[in-house]
Specification:
By secondary structure, this protein is an alpha/beta fold. 35% of the residues lie in helices and 20% in strands. The chain folds into two domains: 111 residues, Rossmann fold (3-Layer(aba) Sandwich), CATH 3.40.50; 106 residues, Rossmann fold, CATH 3.40.50.1000. The strands form four sheets. A six-stranded parallel beta sheet has the order 5-4-1-13-14-15, sandwiched between helices. It has a five-stranded parallel beta sheet with strand order 7-6-8-9-12, sandwiched between helices. The radius of gyration is 18 Å and the shape is globular. The two termini are 18 Å apart. 46% of the residues are buried.
């Protein structure tokens, strides 16, 4: 069996823009063996081209086609729901580019959707406009539910926190496309032409990575190089298929990531 690998980016392959030991070797091994793989991220700020460049600077050679973001998953979802629709967007190039590429019109006049993504410069004016458009009937979509994002100075408000503000003001909850919604996994699998039976998900968070992999029908691997540790993992009512210290434990074993016996 040839395994398809889905893997989170932050906490699995990189940590604060530094590669995690074994990450480069794992990517090289999967590439040499011809294993399909996708690097997943809930971050909607960057395009796959941007993320490829950022990963290359850390020594990780990941092709653009092997990067799947919540922005791409959101665009694919909207295309399946209302092709060639319109949206008022709060977000960066990763999101606006993905929506343009599916033929969406970006507008602040009677849009089909308000689409909220990640940005480092949330505008009170833009949020106010989003609230009014949702009140007027625009459907509310958010790329991911993450409440905070990291920075060198500490936590920053992220999509989930701003979505909560809009929800409180309008009384309308958004539909979140990114992890832990298994839709993000399934859309990634469709992009690869792969099947869940021979696909695994590697993540560092029980509440997003492992949960979304489990709900998408995948086998899951929790690495201990990010958010969730063994102590926190035990608090959840579900378990990953396997727990390893880091992706370095998979190097040389990608053909059989779930040893028996």
């Amino acid at each position: 069996m040839v395994w398809t690998y889905l893997m989170d980016m932050d906490g699995v392959l990189v940590h604060e823009e530094h590669p995690i030991p074994g990450a480069a070797e794992l990517i090289a091994e999967l590439t040499a063996a011809g294993n399909p793989f996708l690097v997943l991220t809930n971050n909607s700020i960057y395009t796959p081209r941007d993320l490829r460049a950022r990963l290359l600077r850390t020594g990780l050679d990941v092709p653009e086609k092997s990067i799947w973001t919540s922005a791409l998953a959101t665009a694919r979802f909207l295309d399946s729901q209302r092709p060639h629709g319109s949206a008022y967007v709060i977000g960066e190039a990763g999101l606006t580019t993905a929506l343009h590429e599916i033929g969406y019109t970006l507008t602040d006049r009677d849009p089909d959707y308000v689409v909220l993504g990640e940005t480092r410069t949330y505008s009170f004016t833009a949020i106010t406009r989003a609230i009014r458009l949702v009140e007027q009937g625009a459907r509310f979509i958010a790329t991911n539910p993450d409440a905070t994002g990291p920075s060198r100075e500490g936590s920053l408000p992220a999509t989930g926190a701003v979505a909560a503000l809009i929800e409180r003001a309008t009384g309308r909850a958004p539909y979140y496309v990114g992890k832990p919604n298994p839709l993000m996994m399934r859309s990634g699998l469709r992009a690869l032409g792969a099947h869940s039976e021979n696909t695994l998900m590697i993540g560092d968070r029980m509440d997003t990575d492992v949960r979304s992999g489990l709900e998408a029908g995948l086998r899951t691997i929790l690495v201990l190089t990010g958010i969730s540790g063994l102590d926190t993992a035990d608090r959840f009512p579900y378990r990953p298929t396997r727990v390893i210290e880091s992706v370095a434990d998979l190097v040389g074993r990608t053909a059989e990531p779930f040893p028996t016996g």
